[in-house]
Amino acid sequence: MTQEGIHSDRSHEFTIHTPEGVTFSLPLAGPTSRLLAWMIDFFCISAFVKVVGMFMPLLGVVSADFSRAVSILFFFAMNIGYAIVFEYYWNGQTLGKRALAVRVMDNRGFRLRPSQIVIRNLLRAVDSLPMFYLLGGIVCLVSRHAQRLGDLAANTIVVKQVKVSEPDVDQVFEQNRYNSLRDYPHLVARLRQRVGPREARLAFEALLRRDALSPESRVALFNTMARHFREKVKFPSAAVEGISDEQYVRGVLDVLFRR
Amino acid sequence: MIIDLKKFIATEQPFWRELEQLVVRQEADPYRRMPFREIKRLHYLYHRASADLAKINTYSAELSMRLFLESLVGRAYGVIYGAKAQAVRFAPLKWFWNSFPRTFRRRWQAFALSAAVMLLGSVFGGGAIVVDPHAKAVLMPFEHLQMDPSERVAKEERMTENDRLAGGKSSFSAFLMTHNTRISILVLALGMTFGVGTVLLLFSNGVMLGAVAADYIQAGESTFLVGWLLPHGATEIPAILVAGQAGLLLAAALLGYAPAKPMGERLRETVPDVVTLMGGVTLLLIWAGLVEAFFSQYHEPVIPYGLKIAFGSAVLLLLILFLTLAGKSGPRVSRRRRANRLQRRKDIRDKLLAPAPAQRSER
After folding, report:
1. CA nearest B5: which of B13, A233, B359, B361?
2. Do the domain assignments include residue B80?
3. Neighbouring C-beta atoms of residue B166, cutoff 10 Å
4. In whole angstroms, what is the distance from residue A176 CA to residue A190 CA?
5. Which of A168, B97, B162, B292 could bridge to B232 as Cys pair (CB 3.0-4.6 Å)?
6. What 3-state DSSP class applies to A109?
7. Measured between CB atoms, does A188 come within 8 Å of chain B?
8. Are residues B114 and B210 in the same domain?
């Protein structure tokens, strides 16, 4: 994949085009989820240091000085090494990132290299300037792929892991309800081919939230959607006569999602 | 166009599963050398899954199937295109004796610039103290450096019985290591300010160093100065300079010393070297921290200055020899082995370019 193969706009999506002509988009993690993940990590580091610190006096058996030295080195190693070690072994995730379902990725879709993980974490020193990751946060807000300086240097991006569940179709469609569109299987097959996953999903969401809409908006919205679907495939008037726009959209989704 | 989705999935699923198995195995051990037959199979399965994904993209209701295939193709894509010609496991000794000194030499210009900036700072700091001795409070904001150098030397040399670091050497050493490493990480990281921050930090360190040196030399305490600073400074100062080298490399990649390449590409080439240099910096600073806490803070009559200076000089000489000579001969590979390796690569290339009728008829 060439650099030209990477596209993104400020809608926070990162798209990868493979040379085989396949395209997939990854949603980028914004500054808020990254800040929350960092806060969880900070809490984990503090807790871990505290717990280990409770056992440090045991090293005082050797000498109090030695125990202090180990504490200083351990605290430093935790601060610098925590994210490096976790991101290396957990494929771009720390405890905080896992909790927030975000992941560090190479910006070409490749496996993260150790040098990328090290540099993005060492550069926290500049991202955290002057305090509380202000510089990193600002750069993250204005940069094209929501990257802080460490990410820019390491050529990494932080993406959201999207868990997409199958739509709960039974919530919307009533069992055994007659759907006039099903009388035309060849048109149904054409509809399945012409309607893209995104528009189907959008219409499904609209149907799920229809009760939250004001009556006027509800009529207008389903009118737009019905018109859109009617343009895709024209059903004979016998199939669509007397049914409202909303019923039509429901009928379309019924044949799309239920076999 | 898919006519019968059920049949399509039933036919293709075994290929997807096989591809997933190959990808999982390679992800679990990226250093594994794939047999040639497996590479060809992976390549074939990846192309097949890519084509399937393009087809299934037209099916609106097959969201989960599409996401599964997208993720599978994405992972396989990472394995195939992200593969290195030769994935090599990290070998610490090889890294230390070869990678670090070689990287240092390959990027010597950045080191020279880093040293020049610090030297300039030292000249400025030294000059400022000579011209205006009252500038001391501003240039050296440390209590123990504020007093008259001769007074301090006399005080240090009197402390033969009371070891002020008694019971605190290890923690002092640990503090020095972590503090200096933190500073050098900052010197590196400020490279992202297009090098401005790195240059300022190197310059200010130089100013402080130059001011201290001028102050002690003026007071006639040169021997004390060298005996005090050289043992740990022989590694500490070069370490900061190498961190500066790393920071300037980052800056150069940002600014575009090879403008024909995009910035991302320039950074991609630079970052492994930067990380290697920082690994070396950490080792140098661990050594410097130990020496400073356990050796540098003791003066005559506890440790003769001659011994301290000799020790510091030896360390500096060894460091110079290490950085200029180590890894020069390179890993020893016999001519025959090298020829065999080249032949093997050529064979693989020829086989890959040759048509594979058996695979094509599979679909």
Report:
1. B13
2. yes
3. 8
4. 23
5. B292
6. coil
7. no
8. yes
Backbone angles phi, psi at B325, to 5 degrees: -115, -30
Q: What is the DSSP string of A149-212?
A: HHHHHHTEEEEEPP--PPP-GGGTSPTT---GGGG-HHHHHHHHHHS-HHHHHHHHHHHHTGGG
Domain-by-domain residue ranges, chain A?
3-160, 169-257
State whether B19 and B156 are in the same domain: no
Q: Is residue B344 part of a domain?
A: no
Q: Is B186 within 8 Å of A164 when comparing Cβ atoms?
A: no
**Cβ contact B52:B69 at 8 Å:** yes
Tokens of A116: 């990328």
- B147 & B160 share domain: yes
Q: Do B130 and B167 share a domain, yes or no?
A: yes
Tell me whether A6 touches chain B (CB under 8 Å): no
Q: Which of B88, B117, B135 is the last residue of a domain?
A: B88
Residue B15 domain flag: yes
- Host domain of residue B142: 92-325
Q: Give the tokens for residue B249.
A: 């490399």
ipTM surpasses 0.85: no
pLDDT value of position A132:
86
pLDDT digits (tens, 9 = 90+) for A77-101: 999 999 999 999 888 999 999 999 9
Nearest alpha-carbon partner for B264 in A30, A91, A144, A128: A144
Of the partner residues B51, B170, B267, the one whose CB lies closest to the CB of residue A65: B170
Q: Please, what sign has the CA dihedral across residues B108, B109, B112, B117?
A: negative
**Is residue B50 within 8 Å of A22, Cβ to Cβ?**
yes
pLDDT, one tens digit per residue, over B29-86 is 877 888 889 999 999 999 999 988 888 776 655 666 777 888 888 889 888 888 776 5
Residue type, B65: M
Residues A173-190, mean pLDDT to the nearest whole number: 80
CB within 8 Å of chain B, chain A residues 109-128: 109-111, 113-116, 118-119, 122-127
Calculated CA dihedral for residues B189, B194, B196, B199, nearest 10 degrees: 70
- Span A47-67, mean pLDDT? 86
What pLDDT, on the 0 to 100 scale, is given for residue B331?
56
Over residues A114-142, the pLDDT tens digits come to 999 999 999 999 999 888 889 999 999 89
- Are B289 and B177 in contact by the 8 Å Cβ rule? The answer is yes
B63 and A66 within 8 Å at the Cβ level: the answer is: no
What sign for the dihedral angle of Cα B342, B348, B349, B350?
positive
Contacts of A110 in chain B (CB under 8 A): 78, 81-82
Secondary structure class of B194 (helix, strand, coil): coil
The edge-to-edge listing of strands for the beta sheet with A6-9 is: A6-9, A13-17, A23-27
Give B14's contacts (C-beta < 8 A, 6+ positions apart).
none
Indicate whether B40 belongs to any domain: yes
Q: How far is CA B168 from CA A47, A203, B160, B232, in A?
A: 26, 70, 17, 18
